[in-house]
Amino acid sequence: MPKWLQSGRRRDVCIILAGEGTAQGQALKARLAERYDERIDPKSFYGALEALEDAGFIETQTEGIHDVYALTEAGEARLREQFAWMREQLA
Question: Can you tell me the distance from the alpha carbon of 11 to that of 8, in angstroms, rounded to the nearest whole number?
Fold first, then answer.
């Protein structure tokens, strides 16, 4: 499998979206900041979202005045491949 996530942050965004279905950008950022126990720079966070969207792993939907992010089928498939590989390595 080719390298698809350039950072743990991108991986973790995909994990959150896999669990929640959809989330607003601010909610995603807050969840990551809570998980990492540190402030996340908005510019780098939204850059990660943009990179995931450009790669086809997440998509932006508009709900009212907010952008909402969701994992695509391609993103879910790659996430499942990643975790299958992790299970193999930990066995």
Answer: 5
Angle at 43 between CA 59 and CA 75, to 5 degrees: 25
Residues 30-56 pLDDT 10s? 999 999 999 999 999 999 999 999 999
pLDDT surpasses 70 at 2 = no
Give a yes or no: residue 2 inside a domain: no
Residue 3, in any domain of the structure: no
Residue 1 included in any domain: no
Residue 72: give its domain's CATH number: 1.10.10.10
3-class secondary structure, 38: coil
Contact assessment for residue 71 and residue 57, using Cβ atoms and an 8 Å cutoff: yes
pTM of the prediction? Answer: 0.86
CB atoms near residue 59 (< 10 Å) = 17
Q: 58: domain range?
A: 8-90
